[in-house]
Amino acid sequence: MSETHETSVLVSILKDAYAKIFYKNWPVWLGGLLIGITSVITFAWERPWGVLGGLREWIDWSFYSLGIYTSHPYYSPHLSTSSILTFGLLWGAFASALLSKQFAIKIPPPFELIRGAVGGIFMGIGTTMAMGCNVGGFFSAVSALSLSGIAMMAGLIVGVFLEVHYFYWEVEHLRFKRGDGRPKKPKKGSIDWKRIQPCLGALAVLVAFAGAFIYRSYGIDSVSGYSYVKTGGLLISGLAFGIILHRSRFAFLQAFREPFASGNAEQSRGMAIAVIVSVLGFAALKSSGLRPEGAYVTSTFWVGSFVGGIIFGFGMPFAGGCGSGTCWRTAEGGIKQMIAVAFMGISNSLCKLFIESSETLTSVMGKRVFLPKYISYHWTVILIVMIMLLYYLVTSWNEKTRAFI
Fold first, then answer.
1. DSSP label at residue 295
2. In terms of CB atoms within 10 Å, which of 70, 221, 250, 345 comes out highest?
């Protein structure tokens, strides 16, 4: 009788723990902390976190396969680090949505589908100019101590500010149904997929680890020196990003937009924490020589990053998420976000081809500015941390005063 009671207590504890992890949203500050830590680990393992590069590579391969592009892409989707990270994020968010019983196909009104496509186009153009989305162009660039990342942050703020004012005009003048849509209720007698979603989610996680193990089994190519081990590790990093983003509902869009819309600063504080942790880790890795100083220092300061940030920031709310946000919402079943992701990849691919065809346009985008080269690692870290603390404090003050609304 005692053993039965002990077993039931253990089962109850495990159920409660599972509910807290997958049925309740994680605090945003925890999501920011974990994103910062995972970003540092990913960079130490191989490279910084990115999202847009993988999407573009899938479009490049699709266009090449359809005969639209004539030049053979130099990367393979299953070997490219960008592709693996993006796939891992999508797969991780998909697994997390299943584990938390939140996966559902959501079809929004037609007007929202159009907004998703328009937002994706804007975001694709902006990412081309800034050489990355909110992750690569801002988060990882700032973490890499690149001045381009700070310029994109300024552009994102301007972009979402303009979009908020446009949105007020749109609501007043354009009468359309809005929203992301609601999942259809299951018919009587049909299979209740909600009940088996956690089992499918656990299976999805196991599949990801199996994939990483398969990569690891290939070791290092003796001819090219390519490390399959590192690729497998990046798959797990992407998986972790997807789970963290989904469970904490972490959204760079809300971190920049809400101070001007609702005044809520929860996401802004989470983003500031993520950047500060990531910057400290990247600076330690670069200053010690463990990672190259020039890694992810984008050559887009200042026109590409600032103007690209404005365009990207303006497009984010249309799409219903940032680069990473549209990905995890896509993995959760959002049709609008799926459309936005597709159009973002397509417009980025085409716009990149256009800009790279002109030396003038390429040079106008800007140049590489690695801050420690000019003001030392010490002062660079202090500068970026102060900027993020200021953003943390100002948005928290605005949450109470509603001064920006």
1. T
2. 250
